[in-house]
Amino acid sequence: MRQGELVRALTALREQLGAFDFLLDVPGVEEAREARDELRNQLDDYVLPRLQAAGAPMLVVLGGSTGAGKSTLVNTLVGARVSATGVLRPTTSSPILVCHPDHVQWFMEGPMLPGMGRVRGPAPDAIAGDQLVIIASEALPPGLALLDSPDFDSVFEDHYEFATKLMAAADLWLCVTTAARYADAQVWQMLQRAKENGATIGVVLSRVPQGDGPGGRAGSVGQASSDVVEHFGRMLDEHEVGDARRFTIPETRIEESRLPEETVEDIRAWLTGVAEDVEDREIVISDTLAAVLDSFRTRVPELARQVEAQVEQRAELAQQVEAAYGTALAELDEATRNGSLLRGEVLARWQDFAGTGDLLRALHVQRARRGRGSSRRRRSPARVRALKAALRSGLESLIMSSAEHGAEQVVARWRDHPAGGTVLAGRGDEIGHVSPELSRRVTRAVSSWQDHVQELIRTEGVTKRSVAKLVSFDTEAVSLVLMIGLLGYGTSDVAVEGGNSAVPQRLLKALFGAESLRGMGAKARADLRSRIGMLFDEEAIRFGQVLDGAGLPDETVPVQLYQATYNLEVAR
Question: Can you give the pTM of this predicted structure?
Fold first, then answer.
């Protein structure tokens, strides 16, 4: 194991775990949030500190259910009342850590459990639950520290959170339960959790009833008690924690918050024996660390799969944006083909233009000689300018209306999506409307399109075989005729090939030829669709920014988690 590379790999994993949130309420999300927090806390509280302080004492965390006697056991092992006991539950509200005096400074200032404050013992009467009370005791050998954690079945949620947090920071987790409560589901949930998280486990079955043993000797374990111990052992095997070191403490008197010395002899001998033997202590510590790192092989990929579920929801929301604007673009495309734009002001201006002779004046046979000033640009007739302005205004209104409909549809689709409510929470109504700058962009796009059509007429309309070669014409006026044809003049339902129909089509076909006209019409329509598509893409970006701002993970996050798992394996 190359420690430097391992620390770097674990630090990178820690950064990845803090780079995303589980915001969407998909199935399994609560478990995923808890698993992510456990991984991050275990890296902060145990794995990284342990790697960087390999010679630190072995930390034994005592965990258990309410009334199991954890504090009493700690007091007995230490030989003094250092942790509160009594009938009032819970008695352990703040974690109590007892260690040899030589290690007090390390636990006060060291890297273990960096998120918890430190208080020198004895414990004050009133203390915040996130404070770790450090007490020195000559009764413990160097190399051993005992930590009395809050009950994991406490009615106080923060006690449960501290119990699980401290369990994940243990070199050895000693689970204390009673003969009356060992079958409780939460005991086995915590044991299973400890196993999955890589902890080295010991178990203490306390308050085992005493009976009359062989020969009537009082204080011995009777048959009923033996049955309890055997059943407890079978349950350990069934839950795949049968390799845990096991101890029993009989029901007995408690004086000055301590058990009789003889009831804890086996536990004391085991803990002190491991702590005092450097090799044994290092084996326990290294085995636990290795098991924790082994657990990352499954825990991190499982978390990545949960992130993928969030990414999938984000992708579905993004697809809703694409679908809404795609539908709006298709409807707009149809509206620019079927003649629906050619009503009201646009139709009136066209009729003015076509019916007053301006259309014919835009065309005339070329003269053999050109005067010196014949190439000068003539000012377009007022009716030409009015028609151009009406077309521009009508097309702008149509695009704005379609974009508004697209935004409304995105919001409606998101509200119908299971994840949409979370993303839209706290958003104002403005997200369901077009952006404030769209009107300016639409005006610029439509004007540019009209200029593009005029340029097509100028550069591609005159071919060797076209009548346009022999006719002088006003490119601006003729470009408007092409636009009228493209927008479906003469039909309310179906556009003919090339988007032209009726009078404009016949006129332009006669002027440019069918092939040239088809080419110009296709290019003009494709250019219009492209410009509108870009406008809609810019509008859709707002919704992508909403997804980004909501903190939803993208597809790179699970990939980085898988990569972090691989890098960790390589570093090991």
Answer: 0.73
